[in-house]
Amino acid sequence: MASTVFLHEPARASTPSRADLTVPRPDPPLPVPRPHFFEPPKEEQGPPAPPKKPVVVPAPVNTPAVAPPPVAAIEPSCQAQLKAAGVIFEPTGVGPQPEPLCVVADAVKLTGLDPASGLPIDFPDRPTLACATALVFTDYLRTLLVPLTRGVFGTAVTAIGTGPGFECRTRDHIPGAKISAHGQGLAVDIADLAFANGRHLAIGNPKDETERDFDRAARAGGCGFFHTALGPGADSFHETHWHFDLQPRGAKGNAKICQ
Questions:
Q1: pLDDT tens-digit profile of 103-114?
Q2: Distance (Å, rounded) from C-alpha 203 to C-alpha 185?
Q3: How far is CA 139 from the centre of its chain?
Q4: Which of 75, 140, 199, 249 has the smallest count of CB within 10 Å of its CB?
Q5: Which residues contact 76 (CB under 8 A, 6 or more apart)?
Q6: Which residues contact 80 (CB under 8 A, 6 or more apart)?
Q7: At 24, is the pLDDT very low, low, confident or very high (cuts 50, 70, 90)?
């Protein structure tokens, strides 16, 4: 029996589909190196620029807060100061005068010092003064005359004879002279003093050396309060009283006459 020979055909490769076919793509060509003579020429460089200075930012300064200026305290009126000082008075006027210069600013009529203030002093002549004069006059009494009286005589002043205070006239009653400080309420006189022990002192008529020394001391002390202080020995017009006034004197208005 003839043997049967089976010839095997080589296996056929499967035909790839169109989707499986990948066509290799070559890489893009590299650019041709540029010759050196195509390089742009370098700019000529000058001297090196100086280094820039660093910007310094100043540190914040802690400036203290400036306080607003203080509000000036309103000074009490002259009459309010008189009242606070224990002075008994009443506002007044001087009315029309024959001389236009006889004008008194803020005129007051003094009665005395309130006993509640510790200085019960009476002004029997009820002098009319400018309020500023009254304020200085009563300060002089409280600060100097009353303590001096206690030290010299061992007693207190109870009454002071002053005359009218305001008087529209010329200085020393001389015709044609300037208007007296009395004509503007800037002057006050002291003609006599009464003391608590019954003693009475008439200015210009001292009974002993003690009264004479007291006269000099009280008048000299008045120069620390007033612009003018006159009395016995100054001239014939002031032999019987002390004269104190606030009339400005000298180029600057602060000169003093003490005699």
A1: 999 999 999 999
A2: 22
A3: 23
A4: 75
A5: 84
A6: none
A7: low
